[in-house]
Amino acid sequence: MLLPKFFFVVTSIVLLFVQGTVVGLEQAELTAALDKVIDSDPTARRTTIALKVVDIATGEVLYDRHGDRLFTPASNLKIYTSACALDTFGPEHCFPTQVTATVDDKTHTIHGDLTIIGGGNAMLAGTELKALADRIVDQWKVHTLQGKVVVDNTRYSNTQLGPGWMWDDQSHYFNMRVTPLMVDFNTMAILGSLEKDGRNKRVAIGDPQTHFAIIFSAMLRARNIKIESPQANPSIGTVQSLAHNGTKLAETLRHFNHESENAVGEVLLHEIAVANGIKRPAWPDGAKLITTWLHDAAGLEQGSFKLVDGSGLSRYNLISAASSVKLLAFMRRHKHYPTFFHALPTYEVGTGTGKTQELVRAKSGGMSGVSTISGYAQTLDGRQLAFSLLGNGFIGSSKPVRDLRGKVWRVLVRYQGASGKTAE
Question: What gap in Å lies between CA 240 and CA 382, rounded to an integer?
Fold first, then answer.
């Protein structure tokens, strides 16, 4: 199988220069160097650290410190959901949003309710909802709605918040309510209130079903559609339907992992259950199916992880470095590996030459007392390693753990295998 373009960024000329200034590490030397990095780092004194590293090509375990121990993963769990979703749906899959109504072409009237049916498109934006309102006017040629706008969220159970989510986070954008119709991730921007990155602050919507029914009604009125009370004996019309297919899964997963958008993972968890024939699923249904897939298809060991939601927001989730590395190695052989790989954020690593290169693709996770990351690292001679570095149990900023991972990466990229043989 050909490696992605990312793994050929080091040209032979650059490699010769690097090999002339940086000493490569064989396995014993790699182990000693990683031990020294972790043992000498002050953050490891009180923080529980696990690290496991595997050579993808050979399957050889290059390093294993507490690889079987269970840790709270935070968003590192997103690679588990991403992998199962890709296997279930494929990268081209879209989740449609539908609008249905009974339309009288003669009077240009909708009789009864106009219904928006949520279909699991977690990426649906308010601009796309407006486009649906425009299509109703342009394609159905209506000017009156004798009824009301109804949002149909019956695809999932009535439970909208996941197990183990913190009650005091419920107003935050990352702790949104999960429904089959997600618009702007069921959050709204507070104009004039900015985050550190300069974007408007977002907050979770308490009742998204009612909120978006009101919003869509306003969009229809803006297109000069009158909304009236239904007639007692309406004339007969025909049932009309419009569908919006939305974003392909490949793009959805890239946003999911790059922006760490929790809403995507929770919707995907529910949609995996729907795809397996479960009607109106709740969190345990999707979590059970993803867990079974991780055991049966990906080969993760029983007891090596616990998955209860799709994003890692729950404190009930647990993973081990061993389970993450096993999953990464499995996905390297999967037919949808390129999509999985390119959905992961990139990180620059110092090479010891005064320069940095994008040698790591990985998904990080962070919450209070948690800093984790798992993914792929490219060595300076072109090998691919799977690694998982998990840190739990610290007070205050995660920066010391993030600084430690940079030190670990600088060691990993120097690995060159037995007798310095170059990777093929």
Answer: 56
pTM confidence score: 0.90
On the question of pLDDT at 5 being above 90, the answer is no
Query: Do 241 and 346 belong together in one domain?
Result: no
Domain of 156, in residue numbers: 97-247
Q: Rounded distance, CA 202 to CA 365, Å? A: 20
> 263 and 243: one domain?
no
Token output for 374? 């798992």
Residues 257 and 301 in one domain: yes
Question: What token pair was written down for 311?
Answer: 């994003």
Helix, strand or coil, per DSSP, at residue 97: strand
> Taking all residues of the chain, what is their mean pLDDT, rounded to a whole number?
90
Where b means 16+ CB within 10 Å and e means fewer, 147-179 reads bebbbbbebbbeebbbbebeeeeeeebbbbbbb
Q: For position 55, which CATH number holds?
A: 3.40.710.10
My answer on whether 38 and 129 are in the same domain is no
Q: Helix crossing, 208-222 with 126-140: angle to 10°? A: 50
Question: Is the model's pLDDT at 18 over the cut of 70?
Answer: no
